[in-house]
Predict the 3D structure of the following.
Amino acid sequence: MSETTLDSKGRVLIPENIRKKARLVGGSKVRVYIDNDIVMIRKSTDPHEFILENEGAIKKGSAVKMVDPIKLKKIPETKKR
């Protein structure tokens, strides 16, 4: 865990060791959530990258219903936080 300070414009500097672990670089997109008093920052995944990461996860003939990967990506985005 690291501690940082908001500047006068509300910006937060993510410490270098955390940026490296999360593979965040300048210009990376992140999502910010709040759950009660906990602020969470999560690395965004673009739809193309998401599809490539999950391609082949569900095989044809599986008991699991085939689903459009874009619809799967929207599930965590719509989950009540």
Notes: The chain has a mean pLDDT of 81. The chain has two domains: 1-44, 45-81. The domain at 1-44 is CATH 2.10.260.10 (Pemi-like Protein 1; Chain: D).
